[in-house]
DNA-binding GntR family transcriptional regulator
Amino acid sequence: MTEPIEFKRIGEGNLRAQVYHQVRLTIQRGELAPGQKLVDVDIAAQLGISRMPVRDALMQLVHEGYLVGTTRGFTLPTLTATDISNIFEVRRLLEPRAAAHAARTLDAAGLKTLAAALQEAEAAATTGDADLFFQANSAFRNCWLGAVENDRLSQTIARFADHVLVVRLKTLSHQPTQAVIVAGMRAIYEAFVRRDAVAVYDRMTHFIQNAEERFMKLSPPSQQFDDEAASIRRRGKS
Amino acid sequence: MTEPIEFKRIGEGNLRAQVYHQVRLTIQRGELAPGQKLVDVDIAAQLGISRMPVRDALMQLVHEGYLVGTTRGFTLPTLTATDISNIFEVRRLLEPRAAAHAARTLDAAGLKTLAAALQEAEAAATTGDADLFFQANSAFRNCWLGAVENDRLSQTIARFADHVLVVRLKTLSHQPTQAVIVAGMRAIYEAFVRRDAVAVYDRMTHFIQNAEERFMKLSPPSQQFDDEAASIRRRGKS
DNA sequence: GAAATCAAAACAGTATACATTATAGACTTA
DNA sequence: TAAGTCTATAATGTATACTGTTTTGATTTC
């Protein structure tokens, strides 16, 4: 129960923003253990600043669903099967459309980035490097998402994707799943190259459905913890 | 530039939550003038509490898009035509599906509430009472939205609907528009009564498209202010 | 009279100190 | 030994004080 995470400040704007980005990155990279708790005063001490900016940053992350605030430190939310299914429903509604948008606006540089991410994912899938695979996956999504001109749409998607992403780390180490995902990415990529918005829409739809199915199949059927987890989550709403 | 708004605490949980709900209600009711600024220390003084809970509440509202934080107090965001169009795009993607869900889960009491809200809206439309019409509209939406079992979906919808709602007040005083909206509500209501999820989906789609068109047509073509407004908005992102 | 510079005020950001609350763990008792 | 209660502690919630920055307004100068 020590503090294996080392925080450092990222050089942008005020302290709250710095801490916010740093902690969010830590979460997104999956460097935060499920049961581990984040305490404002500890992080503040480590950074050599006061509690308030840290507290602000953590509370923002709570509002955005990245963390839950209990009376005993901030921790990762424990998602139930229902939670995950709910998140995937929203993603199913938003992402195909957003990707179709991106098909029109993505420029040559974007396509190049997409190709690189895809290649990386394929390499990681063959060697079985879950970490790299995970990163390539994120790069791929962030790339096309950056081309979406509707900010609110892309930000909403990014947030919900991040929420399941936390639990996703386990799933992504499963090699057959990696193969399926890579196939989906390639299909989407090819549609992007052809600038075929309809194909992008359809393939993204298929991709997300696939992801959800795989996800549900592989995730441990720990339904017995659902009530407990839900109560913890609920407490965090405040 | 005095302080015409009177804040009082709402009796739930900690001070931050109380202030948050109070201020959000004020915004949702359209009681906040567009140029008016909210200053934490002022509100705190009025409530007899310190700055911090007020500041926390205001910052949460900023994170949720209800306010923007400038260097000179918090104010309502100035939405450009693009912003509004972006918000409506997300709503178009989410609300029909959510309403279809509600068609299955809405109980008899819910239908009754819906009927009451509809009747109120019709009455307000004939007398031209914009305020009452506005309220009835919100009641109608909140009712079916409450029956949606996917919390994240309904909360996302509520938030985006609230964002345009701020500007909407003006539009809703236009009587021909009121007639169109009431007709849409009735169509949706009847589909709800029949528990016809498909019809609810289609009519909600139509309803939102209609709302957006009316909205764009009636809103002043003040495109010359767009850049300025966008820059104000951007500053608030921090 | 207009423009530029400077000063003062207003407000957000940050720090520190104090109050409150819920949980864990020890201690008591049946 | 197990169950219940109580206390100590860890963490958040709130208050106040201070700092830095930006804006506004006034004064001076051209």
